[in-house]
Amino acid sequence: MSGDVMLRSGPVHIQAKGLSKVYHKGGQAIEVLREVDLEVGPGDRVSIVGPSGCGKSTFLHLVGLLDTPTSGRLLLDELDVTRVGNRGLHRFRNFRVGFIFQAHNLLPEHTALSNVMIPVQLAGASKVTAQKRATALLEMVGLGPRLQHKPGELSGGEQQRVAIARALVMGPGLVLADEPTGNLDPVTSDSVFEVLLDLNRQLGSTLVMVTHSLELARRFPRQLQLVRGQFEDLS
């Protein structure tokens, strides 16, 4: 696969074709995704709901290249992830995908600014460039006055805003959010959710979010439910 797919900008196009994922536990085969056919257009905003253990996070991990399918095909733009080696997957994930998890996973000894700078510096940018980009993202999520605060000095909602800024600082074409407000109280959850949606609108990335909250899910233009290993469109 040529490098232009890895490094291009713009929203990512997702196509799952007969995608299945089977786990083996205690001698039993557990099929969590069953021949899924699904297309998410570039720039689409999609929510996924379903009971615990139904495969929502598994699907997100497959699309985010953190796991591999058992069978079927998954295409991200022209990248067929079932036919690319680990190096290509790693490169695509680093440059094109941003993750936001329920646990913010910030480095406690680093400031908010330093946490957000890390992905930029790992990509080879200078410290000055990383600082400018991280500062801009933190200001966009309303944390301009908190740049030098460490995670322990921030509220839960502020920590998750730092995590959002870190996920988006590289300008990914695909943003994957797995219960990003699950650990927050309702008021803070709503505030952080609005920050995520607003920032995503500005950046134009494809956004796929897994949530248990039907209320949050309904605020997406497209809503999917995962039932017995396959998607149903609720929109």
Describe what this molecule looks like in 3D.
The protein has 235 residues and is an alpha/beta fold. It has one domain: P-loop containing nucleotide triphosphate hydrolases (Rossmann fold), CATH 3.40.50.300. Helices cover 36% and strands 27% of the residues. The protein has helices at 3-7, 56-63, 86-96, 112-122, 127-140, 156-168, 186-203, 214-217, and strands at 14-25, 28-40, 45-49, 71-76, 79-80, 97-101, 174-178, 206-210, 222-227, 230-233. The strands form two sheets. It has a six-stranded mixed beta sheet, sandwiched between helices. The protein has a four-stranded antiparallel beta sheet with strand order 2-1-4-5, covered by helices on one side. The longest helix has 18 residues, at 186-203. It is globular, with a radius of gyration of 18 Å. The two termini are 35 Å apart. The relative contact order is 0.20.
Secondary structure blueprint with pairings:
Layout: H1 3-7, E1 14-25, E2 28-40, E3 45-49, H2 56-63, E4 71-76, E5 79-80, H3 86-96, E6 97-101, H4 112-122, H5 127-140, H6 156-168, E7 174-178, H7 186-203, E8 206-210, H8 214-217, E9 222-227, E10 230-233
Parallel strand pairs: 3-8, 3-9, 6-7, 7-8
Antiparallel strand pairs: 1-2, 1-4, 4-5, 9-10
